[in-house]
Every structure is written in C-alpha cells, then in structure tokens.
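Q: Sequence in, structure out?
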Amino acid sequence: MTEARPKTTPVLDWHGVWPGHVSYDDGGNYFPQDLPRGIELSVQEAEQSEPVMRREKRWEAGNIHYLTVIKDDSRYRLWYVSFADREDPWVKAGNIPGKYPALWCYAESADGFHWDRPDLGLYEYDGSGDNNILFASGEVGPYGYMHVMRDPVGSDQERYKAIGIATAFQIDGRPATQQEAMDLLFKLQAAGDGGQVGERLTRESVIKAGVSPDGLHWRHLEEPLIRPGLPLDTQNILAYDPDLRKYVVYVRSQRARRRAVSRCEATEFHGEWTHPQTVLSIEPDDPPDCDIYAPCYCRHPHGPHLMFYSLYHRASDLIDVCLAISHDGVTWCRPERKPVIPLRGRYGTLYPAPELVPLAEDRWGLLTLACPHPHNRNSAEPSEYFWAMWKRDRLVALKAGDYAEFALTEQDCVGGQLSLNVKTHQPGGFVKVEIVDGGLPNRAGAALPSGLPGYTFEECDPVSGDQLDAVVGWRGRTDLSPLRGKKIHLRLRMARAELFAITM
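A: Exactly. Output:
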C-alpha cells in the first residue's frame, strides 16, 4: 500500500471553501456555523521580465510570432514561427512556399532567459543549413504548427505532437491541393464566373497535425486531424487529459460573431474527434465590446485546468490576458475579472503560450508574445517574448482586508505538518488555524463544533510575513502525526492577509 503524501491545494476559486451551515436552537433561533465572511478571491498580477528573445536572424527579419515552450528535463525547449522579410532576394525568388514567408523554428535554453538557436542542418536557407529552421510553415498551413505537446502516453515515434490550421479544398467533391484550387479559381474568374467559391470549389478550415520522436524531425499527417465544421483561427491548443485518458483540443471558434473557445476530444489521437463544444465565451458580467481570443490552456502543477486567455477589447483595439479556472476542463469560471498579465508601456497585444513552467527562485513562468501595436494596426515594429512570472502557487488568493473567518471542506490528514503559502500586510496581519474533527455528522445542532484539543485557535501560533511554506504550530508543536488517517476540517482566521495555498 502506497503511503499517503502531503498534498498542496492551491487557491483558485471557491472550491474547497466550506460554505457553512445554518441550524436553529430549541427556541427556533437562527444559528450560523462557519459561514465564510470577510474573504474575497484576488487574482494576482504577473511580474513581467525584460524581453528574453527578439528577432535577430535573417529568416526572422519579418518578425517572430506564435510559440510553444516546454520544460523537458533540465532544458527549456521553444518552438516558434518566424517570418522572413518579403524583400529578401531569396524569399522574392519564391523559395518559401505558402501565402506568407513563414518558417517553423526551434530554440532551447538552460534557464529560460538566455536562448540558443542551434544549427540543426534540417532546412537549407539560401544555400546553408546552419540555422534553427525545422521546415517551411507552408508545408502544413500558413503558419506551420502553432502548438506542441509532449505526449505522456504516445509511442516513442510519436512522443511529440503538434497542430496548426489549414484550409482543405474540394473540387467537384474530391480532395484537391491548394494549387489545384487556385488554378480552378483563376480559370473560373477568367471565364467570367462571378463566384469564387461555390458548387465546384469548396473549402473548409481544418486542424492539421504532425508527430515527432524528438521534437525536431517531424512527419506531417496527410489527412486533417479534425474537421470542426466552423471557421478557425490561430493558436489552438492540444493536450492530453490523464484524468479522462483522452486527447483534447481547445480551438478558437466563434459564437454570435464573437470569438470564443471550443473543445474537441478523442480517445485515440488518430481516431474520431467530437464536434466542438463552446466552453468559454463572453458573459453578461463582461464589457459588451470584448472577445475571447487565444485560449492558452495548460494544467496547474497541482492538477486543475488553467486558461490564460487573451481578452480583446474592441473599443481600444488592445489585448491583455485574464485567467479562467476549471476542475474538469469543460466548465470554466473566472475568479476575478481583471487582467493577470496587464498591458504595460510599449505593448498593445499579448498572447501567452503554454506551458506554465518552473523557473529559478521559486517562480512560475508563462512565456508571452508581446506585440507593440494594437490588434488591427499593421506594423513593422518587432514583437518579442517575455516571461509573465508568479511566485510559486500564487495565481489566486483568498484575501482578507481587515478580518475574515472561514473553514475548508474536510480532508484526510496524512500526518507530517501543515504549511501555508501566505502573505500578510502590516500592521498586525496574521493567519491562525484551528483543526476540527471532520468525521462529525451533519451539523444539525445549535452548537459550533469546537477545535480539537491541542489544535485550537487559542493554542495556534500566529503566522505572518511573506512565506511560501510557513509551518503552522500550536504552542510550538507542529506535528500532525496524532491525526494521521483522520478526516479533519481546517478553520481559519485571517487579518490583513492573503492565502495562496495549503500543504498538508
């Protein structure tokens, strides 16, 4: 039998906060028990690093754009799209296929801040293979692959998987290449046919996929992975859900002429995918001019589902980043309607990229594409990547302004110690914890269950300061082994404090 280990429970929403109970005494008088009061959810703004990567190579002269970053063992791996200069003589000679002179590139780093572009020898640019280019994006679609995942259950030959968007054409009901479709289109137009796409020529947005053993050598799947039957846009996200044992794709879709996020799933990667289901869209509490753009889905290091979505404000033509939370990947909530990555200074649009990865000094980071211009403004100004960073587990807080009391739902005690990720604000801020028997029946009586002897508020040593792992003690005693295997409630009192996570 595996020994139970301490578990970290992050604050993300009201999940885990005991909603309280109301009972009545013998005289019929109202009696509240552990009703939460004085707390609110507080989304934490990211700290933004200085730019860690800008365009610098000849094949990046147009710009660098869509990206994915994965921490693979001890190194950070980055896949991104670069745009060559349209006026580059080699580009003007027609050497890069597709609508845009786009190339899919690779970089890696030991610390996430200093990036190397290795000479891979996989693609010849103007007579030389000394570059970090994997292939021309037009081999897949206009931008190549826009998201990469390392598949925890895939075969060795398909350990890495990637997706991008493309257009699938049909002529008279049969599949056709883009060139065949364009040839027919020009022929119809020359004959005076007023319709560009119609009975003879059809097209649809599809998701194309590729597989790789190492993230460098890619095999493009000939058939579309998903035919969603709706218009698609960039930055769709592929993931594997170990809880469901299914592959999931979050796609940028549309709902009532607004951008939204939809979800497809499949038991087998090469199998049948479900029709897209809208899972995140603008709600009545949002401003009326907003759209949800890029989803940036990833898993929280402790389990729940996260979506750092780019929110487009049409009135200002600017895009910042907000946070949504889910416990099943389908039903999403937003703990607070404020940016977690706000626009600062020179930026006009932000697009974060999975994954949320650990950085040095107990920080988590989300590599973010920052463009200096508003969304609809064409600009030659260079885009760049920076880290949006949080201290470990500090995405959302339970915040007490002056004073708060609340309890958490019951959980199993594995012994060891109780530690808090907490920050208090002077003067006088503190957090105190009382442990209550969690095996009690439904609270029907008009009496508040008391704390367990040795673990009461009166005996608790106040916790204060800015601590990621503050061990809770009761008159100096921190050992919870007497409670091992029992169900317990944690009852808390806080003043001028923020609680981010509990480990027990």
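The helical segments are 89-92, 178-190.
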